Amino acid sequence: MSLPENTTVLIVGAGPAGLTAALSLVHNECHDFVIVDAVLEGQNSSRAITIHSATVEALASIDAADGLLSRAIKGKSIRITSRSSQIFEAKYDPLKKYSAHPYALYIPQNVTELVLGQKLQSLGVQVQRPHRVVGMKQNEKDSRITDVSFEDGQVIRARYIIGADGARSNIRTIAGIGFSDPEGPNTGNSSLAQMVSADVTFDPEPVGPLTLEGHLNGTVFSGNFFFFTPLGKRFNAELTRDGKPITKPIFRVGCAIPVKNGKPPHAPPKEYIQDLIDKYGPACITSNPCLNLTPVKVDQLVWSTRFRTHSAIADRTFTRLGAAILLVGDAAHIHSPAGGQGMNLAIRDAIFLAEAVTKHIQASAENPDVDDTILQELGDVRHARAVEIIGFTKTLLKLASLTYDSYAWWMPCSGASIRDLVLRILGRFDFVQSKVAWGLSGLGRR
């Protein structure tokens, strides 16, 4: 498809961050933009499933929340369990005091993208696909414009470029922006440096409190953790791949893979997922009759992936290469999925970023020599927020990686047993549950 020769804003990447940036531009009365993506529709996968309260609020502020609210499961709580019993539960109900959306939404990322894309289409905007950026250079005639070249030979001249093109961002790389852990190299949790995630169905269907919709369950194990979320049947049509119909309820499972266990396969097969469930999962979904009186097995592997839990952040989220270049989403920062913060921060960043870009466009119309203060301040604030979130997720990962090994022969306790005891005791108090829900919700980190 032919691209226009000129645009005020070019958005590169049509994941949650790019789509939200486009919706925010429209909401702020900016219509001269183009959004492109390097892949064809249908190639996106389930991935992130949680949209927290602060993100729902942000989407509602640009009139982009209704579609997600009508499709998603409204989460009631996050539970921490051992393989056989509950340790702690953080309910979202206390957030009613602070938000009109006192819940998390559980919805697969590809459905989130579908809903946001449909909203954008209803506003008359179409994502242009497939168009991969391969080069950028300052325009020879206008020092505030960048010529962006694509793999198919087309070129767009843009005044603002929003890089929402993922962790391997071409925009970031071509702009010469560094990307590394803010605490320096080798500061991540090496024991849980990799994870596997999958959407599965079971036979027979598992039963028990953990299988009820509306709860995200995290099972702690010695030096490891496993998460499990029932998604029911409401996303079966969107999660169907390879033409295989899905008639049973879908469950999201995920597990950290200790480095000592080796590197997981690129797309872990059903047998690999079953082995993880039997080793680390809650009793109600295992095939081990010693743990589960009604053993269950993975019936259909809908989707699976592996990924690393490392953290990195762009040296800066705003720079100039002729045009103003701003990074958002995974192009700007990545980190452990602990707490489900990544996509949420990306969406909120995109909304604030688009608002700042619109203000700068308006200021430039009044004064062509306006400086970049608006954009620089936005970049600095969102960079600081990302550093904060990276620290938060690292802390969660460290708590999850504690083992039940005793500290010493004369001290018959362990980090994990102390963690579990503290959670069991403090979890009885409403204010503790509220504090945990608040921390995860993002309401204090907008």
Automatic annotation (TrEMBL):
Gene3D superfamilies: 3.30.70.2450, FAD/NAD(P)-binding domain
SUPFAM superfamilies registered for this protein in UniProt: FAD/NAD(P)-binding domain (SSF51905)
Protein keywords: FAD, Flavoprotein, Oxidoreductase
Source species, domain of life: Eukaryota
Signal peptide segment: none
FAD-binding domain location: 7-185, 300-367
GO molecular function: FAD binding; oxidoreductase activity, acting on paired donors, with incorporation or reduction of molecular oxygen, NAD(P)H as one donor, and incorporation of one atom of oxygen
UniProt keyword annotation of Flavoprotein present: yes
Required cofactor(s): FAD
PANTHER family per the UniProt record, alphabetical: BINDING MONOOXYGENASE, PUTATIVE (JCVI)-RELATED, TRK SYSTEM POTASSIUM UPTAKE PROTEIN
Protein name per its UniProtKB record: FAD/NAD(P)-binding domain-containing protein
Upper classification of the organism: Eukaryota, Fungi, Dikarya, Basidiomycota, Agaricomycotina
